[in-house]
Amino acid sequence: MNRDVFIVDGCRTPFLKAGAKPNPxxxxxxxxxxxxxxxxxQPFAASEIGEVVFGCVGPSASEVNIGRxxxxxxxxxxxxxxxxxxxxxASGLQAVDNVYQDIANxxxxxxxxxxxxxxxxxxxxxxxxxxxxxxxxxxxKTLHEKLLxxxxxxxxxxxxxxxxxxxxxxxxxxxxMGQTAEKVAYMFGISRREMDEFSVRSHQRVVxxxxxxxxxxxxIPLFDWQGKCYEADNGVRAxxxxxxxxxxxPSFDKPFGMVTAGNSSQISDGAAVLLLASQAAVDKYKLRxxxxxxxxxxxxxxxxxxxxxxxxxxxxxxxxxxxxLDQISYIEINEAFACQVLGCVRALxxxxxxxxxxxxxxxxxxxxxxxxxxxxxAIAIGHPVGASGARLTYHMAQTxxxxxxxxxxxxxxxxxxxxxxxxxxxxxxxx
Length: 431
Hints:
With 431 residues, this protein is of the alpha+beta class. The chain has helices spanning 27-39, 66-73, 91-104, 128-139, 143-150, 163-167, 177-187, 192-211, 242-245, 279-285, 309-320, 338-348, 351-358, 378-381, 388-403; strands at 5-12, 16-17, 51-55, 82-85, 110-118, 124-125, 161-162, 169-170, 175-176, 222-223, 229-230, 268-278, 291-300, 330-333, 407-414, 418-426. A hairpin with a 3-residue loop joins β15 and β16 (418-426).
């Protein structure tokens, strides 16, 4: 079977930047809040959902198979399956792809696809030295052996390993994600000023998008355990400017690098979820779809330039669906780093790059900056890695609807050297 699959609805929590202390919510708390906000406004019972699929890169030890936990806590009932996917920064898009495929193949009629991440709660780990010392102590049989093992302890063994820093380093090429961004900037001659200008624009576009109500249909309020309400993304800086950003020091390649905290995505907590449906479910429950999922593309490349993954995935979507860039009304490229987005734009317009990677004799074209990340992106909003793919997909659907345009692409780079992209068609005006 190859049935049409529609995005009917969606929502997300505010994306809240990580601070000195963990934010109040676990990854499942955030996802449950998003799911309940979505399900409460549907004309069917939560138990009618066929399956719940969630992306999450770093669930806590008490959230194993977080997708199933979310399904149960969100009120779907014991009989609705739930499972978890992980494709680094595109985990939320992977969840959308899985539900899309299962509905298209006739497995079920309705599905929840989303992503969640509580990056502020990333675990601190014991060092290997401490683990080995503790194992030897535990293996000692007699009191004398235990004393001898205990005496080998050194205070440095208690120095913790921050799991998030380790996760943001590629184990194959031994580069941090920021260093891979530096490499992309070098490849395409992207300057520090260009990065900072792009970052300022991201904040300005989010502020303008908020004022225009472009996030109103996707954000739900989030309450902490003291009753405080969070209604908007809290990393947005309306006063951001190039002069301030120019004072920041390089974060990854000191002292000569160009990638800073100001022109990189924010470490954030948040969750996003979409409701996908078949035509049969649309008819049965009189739903009003926003967009049709046309295609999803996944590509891989050298991990040391992982930021160019969206260019490959976007190119594959265009070629496979016999489209040109000028037929795409809006494009989202997740703002992991400013130079990475700019690098993707330049790659698609570069003849040699397109020859080598797509086997074509002309560039795919230049992305008009007026249709790229029109409401800003992760530099201002934040990038909870498991959630961003779902956020981008739903926001693209809403952007197409609001502007009454036909086709849009949302894409992400993926740590480890991959890229993902989804092609959506606006159907909000259909009867």
